[in-house]
């Protein structure tokens, strides 16, 4: 469907070549990338500042700025403050030159967003979905929603990059298959073997990056939420399972196998008999996660420990962690106690990490974290009680500021970071957009050819006689 | 009945009718003698009047005062200006309906930065953070309303026929949700149906947008109009044209209710409960003012209204007896 992209030649330079001086299109990728990065980041936006920061001459800077303007990447903006002469004109990066698509898929919901080239979300939509529907069905739904977002916003041609957050369970074998029964194991296998990123790139003709929900949530909070400007951060996701993003010295740490932050498997003080899917007893996930809270709530609804939950069960034949949050907000003592216990156990598991890392901020995100003040208060109390006083002296323990948008913000931010990373930027800057980068077009052509081959009847192995 | 749609940040809905203050909270709120301002996109629709009635009645019941009600006339600049003014006014809280997704962030942020409580109606524009830039949103289950509208339209669309969607051009969370849900329901239940869309930038232009859509798609079987006020413009345009067309819409205002009763082109309405939504918004504001954390997304489920169910639906939505037009049924 995007065959036009792979066959489209890069635009030819139109500027007449001057004697003794190579054209910018041929040799200026490095300086163009440097100048665009300076303008984008706001480090230097006037000609004088750019000359100084880039260590380039006036003529070269003028030439490169003209090229960047012609490519549609920058535009002259407002006048800056005068310093003894005419007021300089600020250059502005055109965040509206393209669009970033972001998606977030979770066990029971998905979200899509459209962002500008700074990764700032312009519009977002969330809806319920079941991960067990499998990757192709979910991808089709995301495609429908993306196309809807792009309709009247320039269409697919405006998409520069795509970022996607997927649940850990869909990415890693090593993590949490607890919520899936045996019949759904095939679905899990399908998720783990499905190349979501390539499929999206083929559908939209733009590069895409897929990471775990926890990573994208952490990136989102770092970019625009409670983790903004924090160098050492723990971003804890309290959802159906418990996991964390670990940021140290301003860098997200993913670990040797990309599995850093599996705190759901930390042992708790209340071991209990519940066996975690990892095989151990007493893991945080099996006692304090949203899944565990829902299980305990169902038991309480059945044996009458909570009148509120019993009513919910009677009305809807199911009880969720969300119902427990509502029950606590409506004053149900059992629900409040259940959330407090969950928060306390999470806090106790986080305390050793707080001692180890000495973070400046702990951000609590996910549905349980947003269930009112009870969980937050219990986590705070347990961390303060179990950690060394010196590491908690200036520690902030706060709720996520972005809520369910964090993963979208993180996904859009990652996509922006990747396309403007200097090595990649140098590859596409003379063409004007990353989707027309030759190596990416070759990747798309190869992907399409592979799909055609696998779909062709002649590609099937011959039937045995 | 549970809301099927999620909130603007993916939150699961807290039912609007469950948001009530306990006796202790009510006493605390009354002692606070709070002053609240209300900022709406318009005050001229029946929806707005009902929403206002719910807010004012609830605030009044708890001893709070409504200092002013501002009609922004769908003008983002005016909304920003008024909110910036209210940020320095001697009030405790603002209940506001943001116009569009961008362009009104500054004004809304100013309210919270000034230390006042902000509760939103209908939607939270991207960029506003729950718990930081605002306290809570009270809304209808707009995703559910879109699905109800599709269900109402379906019988009027022939096999492999064409259904139209006439929606607002602005980045409006609620109308976006309705359209997405309408499309999703049709795609799942009536995959044979082709969907086409028209847009209007101003409510007054809805009739013209309908004529353009019809000119481009003379095989239209049925039309979904995003809410009742533009639907009334479309009904006028239908009467002026040569061709009639079944339509469905959202919101049970007085005029649209009379249209439904008359048995004309309007075939069904997915009704919000604006009075309940207003009451919940006021309740959330009061909880915030006494230091409690209300749910971030409070939502009321929609009602499927046909000519036959008009009387009971009207009474459920308006909290008042149906007017004489209905009694003639």
TrEMBL record, chain A:
UniProt-listed Pfam families: ROK
UniProt region (Disordered), positions on chain: 1-23
Domain of life: Bacteria
Alphabetized GO MF terms: kinase activity
Record keyword Ion transport present: no
Keywords noted in UniProt: Kinase, Transferase
Gene3D superfamilies: 3.30.420.40
PANTHER family assigned: GLUCOKINASE, ROK (REPRESSOR, ORF, KINASE) FAMILY
The protein, known as: Putative NBD/HSP70 family sugar kinase
From TrEMBL, chain B:
Family: Belongs to the bacterial solute-binding protein 2 family.
Protein name: Ribose transport system substrate-binding protein
Subcellular location: Cell envelope
SUPFAM superfamilies the UniProt entry points to: Periplasmic binding protein-like I
GO MF terms, alphabetically ordered: carbohydrate binding
UniProt organism field: Roseiarcus fermentans
GO CC entries: cell envelope
InterPro entries: Peripla_BP_I (IPR028082), SBP_2_dom (IPR025997)
Signal sequence, start to end: none
Domain Periplasmic binding protein: 36-286
Keywords carried by this UniProt record: Signal
């Amino acid at each position: 469907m995007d065959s036009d992209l792979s066959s489209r030649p890069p635009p030819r330079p139109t500027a007449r070549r001057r004697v003794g001086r190579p054209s910018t299109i041929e040799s200026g990728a490095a300086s163009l990338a440097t100048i665009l990065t300076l303008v984008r980041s706001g480090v230097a936006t006037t000609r004088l500042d750019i000359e100084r920061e880039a260590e380039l001459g006036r003529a070269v800077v003028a030439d490169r700025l003209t090229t960047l303007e012609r490519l549609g990447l920058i535009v002259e903006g407002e006048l800056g403050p005068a310093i003894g002469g005419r007021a300089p004109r600020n250059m502005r990066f055109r965040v509206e030159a393209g669009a970033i698509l972001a998606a977030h898929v979770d066990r029971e919901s998905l979200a899509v967003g459209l962002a500008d080239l700074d990764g700032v979300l312009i519009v977002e939509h969330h809806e319920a979905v079941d991960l067990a529907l499998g990757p192709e069905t979910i991808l089709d739904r995301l495609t429908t929603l993306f196309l809807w977002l792009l309709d009247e916003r320039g269409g697919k041609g405006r998409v520069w990059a795509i970022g996607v957050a997927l649940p850990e369970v869909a990415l890693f074998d090593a993590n949490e298959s607890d919520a899936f029964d045996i019949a759904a194991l095939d679905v899990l296998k399908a998720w783990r073997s499905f190349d979501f990123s390539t499929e999206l790139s083929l559908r939209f003709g733009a590069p895409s990056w897929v990471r775990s929900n926890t990573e994208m949530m952490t990136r989102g909070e770092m970019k625009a939420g409670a983790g903004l400007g924090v160098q050492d951060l723990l971003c804890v996701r309290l959802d159906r399972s418990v996991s964390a993003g670990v940021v140290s010295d301003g860098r997200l740490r993913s670990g040797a196998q990309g599995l850093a932050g599996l705190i759901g498997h930390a042992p708790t003080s209340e071991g209990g008999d519940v066996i975690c899917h990892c095989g151990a007893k007493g893991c945080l996930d099996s006692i304090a996660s949203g899944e565990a809270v829902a299980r305990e709530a169902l038991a309480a609804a059945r044996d009458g420990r909570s009148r509120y939950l019993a009513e919910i069960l009677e009305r809807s034949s199911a009880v969720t962690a969300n119902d427990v949050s509502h029950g606590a907000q409506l004053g149900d003592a059992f629900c409040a106690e259940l959330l407090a216990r969950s928060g306390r156990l999470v806090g106790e598991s986080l305390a050793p990490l707080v001692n180890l890392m000495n973070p400046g901020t702990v951000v609590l995100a996910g549905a349980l974290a947003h269930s009112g003040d009870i969980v937050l208060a219990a986590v705070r109390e347990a961390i303060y009680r179990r950690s060394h006083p010196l590491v908690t002296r200036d520690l902030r323990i706060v709720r996520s500021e972005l809520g369910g948008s964090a993963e979208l913000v993180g996904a859009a931010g990652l996509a922006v970071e990747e396309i403007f990373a200097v090595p990649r930027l140098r590859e596409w800057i003379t063409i004007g957009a990353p989707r027309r980068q030759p190596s990416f077009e070759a990747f798309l052509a190869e992907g399409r050819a592979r799909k055609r081959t696998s779909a062709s009847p002649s590609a099937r192995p011959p039937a045995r006689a | 009945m549970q809301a099927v749609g999620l909130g603007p940040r993916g939150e699961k809905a807290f039912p609007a009718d469950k948001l009530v203050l306990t006796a202790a909270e009510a006493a605390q709120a009354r002692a606070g003698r709070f002053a609240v301002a209300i900022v709406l996109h318009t005050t001229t629709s029946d929806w707005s009047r009902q929403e206002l009635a719910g807010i004012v009645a609830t605030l009044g019941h708890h001893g709070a005062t409504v200092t002013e009600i501002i009609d922004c006339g769908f003008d983002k600049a005016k909304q920003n200006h008024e909110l910036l003014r209210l940020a320095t006014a001697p009030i405790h809280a603002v209940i506001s309906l943001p116009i569009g997704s961008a362009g009104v962030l500054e004004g809304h942020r100013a309210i919270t930065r000034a230390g006042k409580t902000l509760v939103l109606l209908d939607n939270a524009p991207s960029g506003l953070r729950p718990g930081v830039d605002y306290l809570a949103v009270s809304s209808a289950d707009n995703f559910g309303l879109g699905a109800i509208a599709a269900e109402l339209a379906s019988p009027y669309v022939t096999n492999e026929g064409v259904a139209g969607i006439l929606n607002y051009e602005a980045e409006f969370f609620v109308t976006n949700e309705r359209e997405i849900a309408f499309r999703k329901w049709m795609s799942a239940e009536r995959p044979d149906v082709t969907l086409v869309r028209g847009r209007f930038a101003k409510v007054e232009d809805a009739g013209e947008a309908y004529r353009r859509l019809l000119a481009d798609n003379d095989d239209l079987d049925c039309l979904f109009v995003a809410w009742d006020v533009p639907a009334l413009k479309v009904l006028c345009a239908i009467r002026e044209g040569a061709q009639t067309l079944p339509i469905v819409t959202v919101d049970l205002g007085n005029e649209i209710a009379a249209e439904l009763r008359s048995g004309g082109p309007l075939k069904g309405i997915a009704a919000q409960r604006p009075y309940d939504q207003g009451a919940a918004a006021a309740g959330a504001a009061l909880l915030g003012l006494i230091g409690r954390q209300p749910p971030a997304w409070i939502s009321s489920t929609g009602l499927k209204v046909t000519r036959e169910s008009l009387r009971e639906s009207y009474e459920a939505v308006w909290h008042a007896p149906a007017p004489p037009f209905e009694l003639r049924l």
